[in-house]
Amino acid sequence: MPLDGDTDRSRREVLKAAVALGGASALSACLDRTADEPVPTGDPSAKPARQHAWREYIRHDDHGNSQLPSHQTLLYLTLDADGPPSADDRDALGETLDALDRAYAWSHEGLLHSIAYSPAYFERFDESLPEGIDLPEPTALSPFESPTFDRQDALLHLASDRPDALLEADRALRGERDAANGVSVPPLTDALTVDSRRTGFVGAGLPAQHQDAAGIPDSKPVPEASPLFMGFKAGFRGNQATEDYVTIDDGPFAGGTTKVVANLRQRLDDWYEEQTHEERVMEMFSPGYAAEGLVEGVGDTLGSDSGIDRFVDDLESDAREYGRVGHAQKAARANRDSAGNVRLLRRHFESTDDIGSDQQVASLHFPSLQRRVSEFEAVRRAMNGTDLTEVTPAVRQRVNNGILEYIFVRRRGNFLVPPRRHRVLPTPRPE
Fold this sequence. Notes:
six-stranded mixed β-sheet, 18% strand, Dimeric_a/b-barrel, alpha+beta, Tat pathway signal protein, globular, DUF7405, TAT_signal
């Protein structure tokens, strides 16, 4: 007879697999394992005005760090006709999103969701976005990447700790069932085509359970306690922008934000097989972290703030002394405004998606929220560390230069997340 822990692990594996597969049999397996745990229904009037208002409605750890919903799905959507959306398109999408609001409570135990729109969507209109909205077309942000750009009209992001809720909503939205959580849900496909469906997971135990994907050594080195494939915690509260900070504060889209979503392939054989824990700490955070012994295990010892700001000015001296620099210390130098506020709110999660194939690979979906897309672009370019290759020959463009040797950007898209009042196929200048 299996131990309780083995039973729980088997249950989680089945539920995660169900979300990834997304079919009727997967949903049946999911519901069989959650039949005694009803999903809370929604109150549309209780939904926050900001679509990106999640922190108040999710779990937090003992240090106050946000714990993102364990299961997530991204639906990339394209309008079926040329030109601006019609009134019928707006009515259809509005009915779908309103039904989703009724079906699920706005929480990690129900369903969190947001819909965002690309620069290509707004190009359907004769008028332009307001001058204060910074939403450029996606572009390559390093000299060594050549991603495919996601230029679909819209992106619907779904997240829940309940895989049954996530999958039931997903299938209803794609027209594969009539109702979700007892509420009739008109399908998205009445107005839009689902161009791409992508899934993922985050949280202690989940990456370890799915480390049989390509890109991770056969030795199964991902710690059970790690929420991410690379073996460390991330998203410390003190190193994240607040939802208030990333919110657009004026104009017709006040209460909204911008969103960049990248998909990265991970190749972690050398990360785990050639690097010691101390060396991984050096390249994930900074050499100073390893010298001071700041990171034990997956990083619980860091509490609510990694303290990376203290090591930003050490980049060049670290490069000379240790022959390597840290990912976090490079990014942090551009991720602060003049008052010291963090600019980006990162909500990334792991995946085994290999977009365009059925192969399972270690990958990462990386949503980032910020007022202006240019802020994300500045942080990403700082992460490249191109300037540090001139300090010492030991640091090269992708070697000993943070984690660049182990991650490969495959796709990127830029989006505007409107406030809830304008979430249904907005014009560039809604009233």
